[in-house]
Amino acid sequence: MSRSPQYAPYSPQTIKVHTIPIESFETLSSYHNIHSVRITWVDLINATGFRVVPLKSFYRLLASSRPGITITQCIFGFVINRAASGFGPVGEYLFVVDLTSMRLCSYAPGHVSIMGWFQDKVPAPGRVLGTGVPMCPRSTLNRIVDTAKSYNAAFLVGFETEFILLKSTNPIEAVNPHGWNSALALPSGTKETEVIEEIARGLVDSGIELMMYHSEAAPGQYEIVTGPLPPLEAADALVHTRETITNVASKHGFRATFAPRLHVDNCGSAAHTHISVHPIDSKHPSELQNLSQSPAGTSDNLITPLESVFLAGVLRHLQASCAFTLPLRASYARMLDGIWSGGTWVAWGRDNREAPVRLCVPAASVDAKLATNAPSKNHFEIKCVDGTSSPYLVLASLIGSGLLGIQSQSPLIEQDCATPPALMTEAEREAVGVTRRMPMSWEDARAALVADEALKGILGDIVDGFLSVGETLDELLHSPNEAERVQMLVEYY
């Protein structure tokens, strides 16, 4: 009998990123008959773009001292067919390819995709040539993750990707009426089952760990769950996952949409973001060793001191982070009390799906020896995220918020919420430190971001660009007719 494969627990030290290795670049033409490279990026409104470079031209590009392509600096200001305020026609970036990020495009035979870094093409005052520019979302996330390392903190991130398969966008018509985990939503021989299975195979072929898939609660809705990776690689993998979903659906005549909520009488689509925080060197836990082993709100030792200060930072800046995690006016139709979407109060709770931050704890071991002195296997599920958001900006804001908590060793004011906050009295909420509401609208979230000087400080100049393009996008998606608004949403997201 062959031995079963051995799996190590997920940790920043054991996780592997299965992209195409750099040593395979010279033989790409024989690797799945590759003939084209998609140099890919995601802008500030979460629109994915790429330029296709024939393989021979890509080899020539790699021979240069800074392998990349030039793109107008207005790239981050383009919103559908309009340039946002603050962006103009002058200046170019060099988009330098990241040779660690190449993945097979299973949905486009002969193609691979590769991500990159937006850098100054020529020296700019006050900036180091060869580093990411402030407006680059990928560079912003990478900078924050690198800063966290100096505080002995590393992260793993996984995503749940919810989407709806439509057989018509005008009128809006889902592929079937079936619901959550229903076998009727994935019957053999149907086109939707063929699509979902092709998506699943494609993700595996591209090196992304597929943990599971199933139907979700709205008609035609499905969920793809992918495994944990370091933050930058996780964001890259989510972009590739979404591209796989939309392209495979399109190939079969469907439209896959990540729109937050199509109908008020059905569930919305989220991009639940799972984050775990780990000490890089457990033998040198830095200043966090001085914290109480039972921080406020964690008297039963649910979470570690590092998790406590990280969570405190996330919650303190969550209202502002919603500008990035829920970036559209339509996003707030999903964030309501009583529909298991995270609710409307800034709170956290163990396995509480009516809190925007859910503490996910592992199943208890029946072997007491295995349960002692083991690293934490907790992680946090951030529920106030949807698929219209950029994963780079989402993670930059959430991890940046947590990093602020780590840097200041913030006390955790909010306690473990064992009841949906909306069902508690005001006195009961105050007793567990739950006193702040989540943003109830697009305007509220943007105002919270503008007012949050600490979060703006750690994110940098990208905030102003994001606010500008968001305003332009809101104008373009506006329509007095609800049906037209929904149709535009599914066309672009």
UniProtKB/TrEMBL annotation:
Any one Gene Ontology molecular-function term assigned to this protein's record: glutamine synthetase activity
Assigned keywords, A-Z: Ligase
GS catalytic domain location: 137-493
GO BP annotations, alphabetical order: glutamine biosynthetic process
Pfam families linked: Gln-synt_C
Signal sequence interval, chain numbering: none
Superkingdom as given in the UniProt entry: Eukaryota
PANTHER family (alphabetical): GAMMA-GLUTAMYLPUTRESCINE SYNTHETASE, TYPE-1 GLUTAMINE SYNTHETASE 1
Family classification: Belongs to the glutamine synthetase family.
Protein name per Swiss-Prot or TrEMBL: Glutamine synthetase
Species name: Suillus subaureus
